Amino acid sequence: MGKGKIVFLENEDREYYVSGTAPLVIARGGFSGLFPDSSKAAYNLALLASVPDVVLWCDVQLTKDSVGICFPDLKLDNASDISSIYKNKETTYLVNGVPVQGWFSVDFTLQELSSVTLMQSIYSRTAKFDGNKFSILTVQDVFTQTQPYGFWLNIQHDTFYMQHGLSMRDFLLNSSKKFVVDYISSPELTFLSSIAPRFKGTKTKLIFRFLGQDDIEPTTNQPYNSLLQNLTYIKTFASGILVPKAYIWPIDKNLYLQPSTSVVQDAHKQGLQIFAADFSNDSPLSYNYSYDPVAEIMTFIDNGNFSVDGVLSDFPITPSEARDCFSHIGKNRTVPTTPLIISYNGASGDRPGCTDVAYMKAISDGVDVIDCNVQMTKDGIPFCLGSINLITGTNVVQTKYSKLATSIPEIIAGNAIFSFGLTWAQIQGLTPQISNPFSQYRLYRNPAYRNDGKLISLSEFLVLAKNKTSLSGVLIKIEHAAYLAEKKGLDVVGAVLSSLRDAGYDTQKTQKVMIESTNSSVLVEIKEKSNYERVYEVDENIRDALKSTVEDIKTFATAVIVNKASVYPDNQAFLIDATNVVPRLQSFNLSVYARLFSNEFVSQAWDFLSDATVEINSFVTGAGVDGIITEFPRTSVLYRRNKCLGLGKNTPAYMSPVAPGNLTQVISPQYLPPAKAPFPVLTEADVDEPPLPAVATVKRTTDVASSPLLPQRLGCKVEEAHPYAEPTGWYKLIKIL
């Protein structure tokens, strides 16, 4: 490419790129994680949302009249509508000795393919852009229309095309006379070695592509794993290798990382560049990455031991962020104090919520504030748990207490086993369970730790927090106070204030105390009895709030929590616009915290490109929220440390907030989701409540039935850990069509 080279510094077996070009970002088929692979929109978005030196990848197929096209697969029916255009032209051919049925480019001229349009081929991705009728592009078209910094041609099936009288070799030689081809890769050893003499002394680099370790290289009949042992020979005709990421960081059958191999160091010792493939934000990641694709990229380019020379990704924005914003951050870098990062039940994305280990994980991740959602036991002990329903977060349905299930509609719909039905001693005997909010997509959380840790009382929580100097405060949530006081004789507000007083929080000034509630009556009473900060949670989605309503909130609260949808409403996971909620509340000097942030890509709008960092950045720099409430604190903490914040006009595109509504403008009219009614405006009637009732005197019993009850009696499903499987999930989109 002639833009410099990666220079590695050897020091105690550690290598770092220290000058020249950083690891390449290679966009497979453009931004194929959103738009149909190899479409004009995919290539254009890759240029807009990636580093300036992004390399565009084209999988080359040949037509019947020897024209090279960019298409992701040998079979055209995998990513186009050809089966409905040419219904009777399905054929079966031998591909590397295996019969394959479908529609093949060798049976069609370029003219015949002009009526065929590209479609999304991966079911976990939106099909809303299939109606845009993106045409199949020639290799020449892609280069001419995009003028990429780097152009990479992948030749996957030279042998197949030779069998049909077509020559990839001739195509490449003719193409190299018309435009610059920076990289040519192929998994066929004989083909790559045969063209090497013709590209010797040119800017074009030849890259040998490794497929699965047990896959057979078609021209030598050797498994690729054995070819990896002969890098000296590969060096005679290639300048680099492209390997699946699992060659470098293997993953076991349970989706946990194994120790890295020496393949990167081995390649570099032979003078070979090494590129890693198979990066995709919406495909299985190791649980070690906590569903954060930036964290995955970082292990390949900034792990303290080695760095690959480039990564091949369907979502090039992610390696762009990782390379330019997150890698090699100095320890002495000044880190902004905003946004405030607040845990949700501790690090509940990685450990069972509200357990000692969840809080310790959040603290070690660098969270600012840890939270306790206070529940009350039968004997009046306040403790931390995400829900008043013990079924959520514990194994209670598998114990003798399962027969305590009952229905209290004013608290929760359906049957539940309420915390106030058991004593603290009984609850301590329950086993915590990690939450799996996206199990319907077969996305599960950290199964090795699914029952780790123990539940803790509010007093234990406060002792834990007070001893951690890295914390700036605690957030204590109080719900159902009126019901508990009137029906159960439990004073949750008094219990919280007493615990805080006993822990010395009423006299210390090191850590701030925030009391959260969806009930204004709770916060009014807290204001009357303490000087703690008060956080009002708006538990419904809203598009705005009346001035009089905000003035009312201001009388009892110092901050407000709103749902993400109240900031950026969406329709079928496409952002519609931005509301006025955040600026309205902030205009009254109310801090605004947004909830709830998760790393799983199905929790994010398509606009955020299946990347948790893109979502967080949009809420912080786009919407201007003051705080983030998250199940994965580490992702937000790392975001706050990145080097691309505070650059003003120099902020790169891949660290700019999304433009809500822009992505829907690209969808063809017939594919647009139906119009959605706007959210309501928050009124005073939504906020005002009568004072909390007096605490009733209730006679308590200690009998607890001992006979077990099967989970089916409760209409509950007991979740077991399952292997990760794919389900379904932008960015500042300038008009690109």
Automatic annotation (TrEMBL):
One GO biological-process annotation of the entry reads: lipid metabolic process
- Could you tell me the EC number(s) of this protein? 3.1.4.46
Output the Pfam families linked to this UniProt entry.
GDPD
In the record, which residues are listed under signal peptide?
A: none
Is this entry keyworded Signal? Answer: yes
- PROSITE patterns hit by this protein: GP_PDE
Q: Spell out the reaction equation it catalyses.
A: a sn-glycero-3-phosphodiester + H2O = an alcohol + sn-glycerol 3-phosphate + H(+)
Domain GP-PDE per the UniProt entry, residue ranges: 23-323, 339-640
Asked whether the UniProt record includes Glycoprotein among its keywords, one would answer yes
Name the domain of life: Eukaryota
Provide the alphabetized UniProt keywords.
Answer: Glycerol metabolism, Glycoprotein, Hydrolase, Signal
One molecular function GO term is: glycerophosphodiester phosphodiesterase activity
Q: Give the family from UniProt.
A: Belongs to the glycerophosphoryl diester phosphodiesterase family.
- Protein's name in the database: glycerophosphodiester phosphodiesterase
Q: What organism is listed for this UniProt entry?
A: Dillenia turbinata
